[in-house]
Amino acid sequence: MPTARIFQRPKNSMSSGKALTDRWQLEFAPAEAKRPDPLTGWAGSGDTRDQLRLRFPTCEAAIAYCEREGLAFSVVPAPEKTLKLQAYADNFK
Predict the structure, then answer these.
(1) What angle do CA 70, 74, 79 make, to 5 degrees?
(2) Rounded Cα distance, 41 and 34, in Å
(3) CA-based angle 76:81:85, to the nearest 5?
(4) Rounded CA gap, 34 and 23, in Å?
(5) 3-92 maps to which CATH number?
(6) DSSP assignment letter at 13
(7) In angstroms, rounded to a whole number, what is the distance separating the alpha carbons of residues 84 and 80?
(8) By the 8 A CB rule, do 25 and 7 touch?
(9) Cα–chain-centroid distance for residue 76?
(10) pLDDT tens per residue across span 15-72
(11) Residues 23-54, buried b or exposed e (16+ Cβ, 10 A)?
(12) Is the overall model pTM greater than 0.85, yes or no?
């Protein structure tokens, strides 16, 4: 039985924007280890679920999908969002 991981997408560290961080994503655990291709040397496997990422508006919708399809899943809770309040004058203390 394939296992899935449900998590909330983190904010991109290269940008100040928070677009699509309120959505939940489902990824499948790899079914087999990756191995180097003899011709190109690139890492790959026959597991096509590695390429599949499903997005859901809520965690409950992702859980309902897993239960409907009979998938084992684990929910990774979203990290706490902390706001660091700092004044410009704090740079000179």
Answers:
(1) 145
(2) 11
(3) 165
(4) 29
(5) 3.30.160.190
(6) T
(7) 12
(8) yes
(9) 9
(10) 878 887 889 999 999 888 999 999 998 998 888 888 899 999 999 999 999 999 999 9
(11) ebbbebeeeeeeeeeeeeeeeeeebeebeeee
(12) no
- Structure token pair of residue 16: 């100040």
- Distance CA(2)–CA(19), nearest Å, equals 30
Tell me the three state secondary structure of residue 12.
coil
| C-alpha to C-alpha distance for 68 and 39, rounded to whole angstroms | 41
Distance CA 24, CA 61 (A): 9
Domain boundaries, the chain: 3-92
CB 5 within 8 A of CB 27: yes
Residue 63 in tokens: 């859980």
DSSP assignment of 16-47, as one string?
A: S--TTTTSEEEEEPPSS--EE-TTT--EE-S-
Count Cα atoms within 13 angstroms, Cβ side, for 35: 9
Residue 54, classed as helix, strand or coil, is strand
